[in-house]
């Protein structure tokens, strides 16, 4: 089922167009906006769908973008709330796209320019190279257990009575249940055809490699009236069990909330033994 044609994850190498490239330390929103811009230039209809509607659950208000990206990987020096880059930058981008958009993905970002800017600074990059990452192959029609590593902070959010998020540590007693609910809602939004047994098999839990997970705070739409602070955690791994389709979705679309702002990007650490279970959907 997993072929190169279904490959939705890419490594993108960005070369600064100047020797003094400076980007905001809170680059996640500008980078997300840059991705939307590339989407719009390549496929305006699909980009509009992502931006305005997304993948909805049962035609309700909740929607998911079903794409995410990793932290930028580059050499830099901090100067206040700025990052002065001294090397090319790499970012991993991942999509869970419908079949009708697969042809669009093949030429994504090729020969493009990416601009990361806010009210204080602006830097332009050329896409020097885009490489499809190795496919995430799982036994078709099986329940599998996979260990994922985090390549960006993961956000677990629980809304209060005013609709604002309370950001929870993976050590919180509600973390597993909230992450599982979020994953199942994404499966509904993506219209995965899972059997009841496959749905019941789904589980997700944090795996701690150190004593304490680390927290990180980023600012979205910094220095504007719409400025928002969001808190995530990293320094731990994710253990997930489910069907091939559900695990593919988690891998492609990201874990937790704020995925389209580059949060919850997963990379496979280890695939555990699978339990063969043929499904009706496949």
CATH class of the largest domain: Alpha Beta
Task: Please count the beta strands (DSSP E, at least 2 residues each).
Answer: 19
Order of helices and strands: EEHHEEEEEEHEEEEEHHEEEEHEE
CATH architecture of the largest domain: 2-Layer Sandwich
What is the CA-based Rg, rounded? 19 Å
Overall average pLDDT: 83
Q: What's a concise summary of this model?
A:
22% of the residues lie in helices and 35% in strands.
Tell me what the structure shows:
There is one protein chain. The protein is α+β, with helices and mostly antiparallel strands and 282 residues long. It has two domains: 4-132, Alpha-Beta Plaits (2-Layer Sandwich); 142-276, Alpha-Beta Plaits, CATH 3.30.70. It is built from six helices and 19 strands. It has helices at 28-42, 44-53, 102-106, 175-189, 196-201, 244-253, and strands at residues 9-16, 22-24, 55-56, 63-64, 67-69, 76-79, 82-85, 89-95, 113-117, 122-132, 142-150, 157-159, 165-167, 203-208, 214-220, 228-234, 236-243, 266-271, 275-276. A five-stranded antiparallel beta sheet has the order 5-8-1-10-9. A hairpin with a 4-residue loop joins strand 9 (113-117) and strand 10. The longest helix is centred in the N-terminal third of the chain and has 15 residues, at 28-42. It is globular. The relative contact order is 0.21. Mean pLDDT is 83; it is low at 1-6, 53-57, 59-64 and 273-282.
């Amino acid at each position: 089922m997993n072929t190169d044609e279904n490959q939705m994850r890419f490594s993108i190498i960005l070369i600064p167009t100047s020797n003094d490239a400076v980007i905001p330390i809170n680059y996640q929103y500008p980078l997300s906006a840059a991705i939307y811009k590339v989407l719009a230039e390549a496929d305006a209809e699909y980009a509009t769908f992502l931006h305005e509607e997304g993948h909805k659950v049962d035609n309700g208000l909740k929607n998911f973008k079903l794409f995410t990206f990793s932290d930028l990987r580059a050499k830099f020096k901090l100067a206040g709330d700025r990052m002065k880059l001294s090397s090319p930058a790499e970012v991993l981008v991942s999509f869970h796209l419908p079949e009708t958009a697969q042809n669009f993905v093949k030429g994504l970002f090729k020969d493009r320019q990416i601009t990361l800017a806010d009210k204080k600074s602006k830097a332009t990059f050329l896409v020097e190279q885009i490489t499809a990452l190795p496919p995430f192959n799982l036994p078709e029609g099986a329940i599998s257990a996979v260990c994922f590593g985090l390549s960006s902070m993961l956000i677990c959010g629980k809304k209060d009575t005013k609709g604002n998020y309370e950001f929870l540590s993976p050590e919180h007693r509600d973390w597993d249940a909230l992450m599982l609910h979020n994953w199942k809602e994404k499966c509904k939004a993506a219209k995965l055809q899972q059997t009841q047994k496959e749905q019941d098999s789904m589980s997700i839990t944090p795996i701690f490699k150190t004593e304490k997970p680390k927290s990180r705070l980023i600012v979205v739409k910094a220095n504007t009236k719409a400025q928002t602070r969001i808190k995530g955690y990293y320094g731990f791994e994710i253990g997930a069990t489910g069907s091939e389709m559900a695990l593919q979705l988690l891998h492609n679309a990201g874990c937790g909330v704020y995925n389209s702002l580059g949060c919850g990007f997963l990379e496979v650490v280890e695939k555990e033994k699978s339990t063969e279970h043929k499904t009706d959907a496949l």
